[in-house]
Fold this sequence. Notes:
This protein has helices at residues 3-14, 25-59, 82-92, 115-123, 209-223, and strands spanning 60-69, 96-104, 126-135, 145-153, 157-167, 178-190, 193-201, 234-240, 258-259, 279-283, 287-294, 305-312. The protein is of the alpha+beta class. The strands form two sheets. The chain has a six-stranded mixed beta sheet with strand order 3-4-2-1-12-11. A six-stranded mixed beta sheet has the order 5-6-7-8-10-9.
Amino acid sequence: MPxxxxxxxxxxxxxxxxxxxxxxxxxxxxxAADAADAADAADAADAADAADAADAADxxxxxxxxxxxxxxGAGSDxxxxxxxxxxxxxxxxxxxxxxxxxxxxxxxxxEWRDLAEELAESLGMRVYFAxxxxxxxxxxxxxxxxxxxALLSRFPVLDAENHEITRLSTQLPDPVPAPAPxxxxxxxxxxxxxxxxxxxxxxxxxxxxxRQAQVADTRRIMAEDCDRxxxxxRQVLVGDFNAEPGAxxxxxxxxxxxxxVPKGDGLTYPAQQPVKRIDYVTVSxxxxxxGAAVAETLASDHRPVxxxxxxxxxx
Length: 315
């Protein structure tokens, strides 16, 4: 109970709000009734406050989300150092992290290691890896060579899918735009609320046509999670978009998503002296961005972005 109301009730109960002369009996009765009414009103107000507080607590749940292009475990110094990458991710203290440029037995640059599994084990998190490329092994009997995106989560993964979006392959001699995997999605239960989290890595080329197609694919895929009445689940899209917020090809995203703009300039690339903001945490309706920041680390050629979210329960 607020101190002000409790103090008023004590005054009434002690009769200290009356005059110094002894009141007649009927006045005492009236004053007692007034005191009882005031006490009831205070109780009702306190109950309403408690209900409002409980409603507010139930309505939103916290979630910290990050996006990090890990450059296949190599820092700005171009040296492969996976423990350094893990340390940078751990410092974010995020519940869910979308990773880009993740090698899984890909090649010598990352010592043929499974970066997705090793990072998950080091951080004590669950992982879903969504390859963009999955190639035959270098030698018979060895694992497939894979490269793509991944999602690390402290929460159980209820479902996961590797979606196809338009890509221009870097592994073919004469590529043409075509559907290819590497748009990862996980469905999480966050404090009782289902949240769909996606991670993506859009095309890096200066010419924007491939990114335009990828944005259209992204919108279509995310809309598939909505019901026939257009009611959509809570959705978070993170990734390396390879374009700045004002780029024309990203404009359709902002029709349905909110950009979690980091404090300050928010620049993420290149890590040593960033001049561009191309890494994002974005959210759908039903999710508030409490704040966002860019972490200063040279564990990759990008800096990670992390955002504190409030996810609304119910519809």
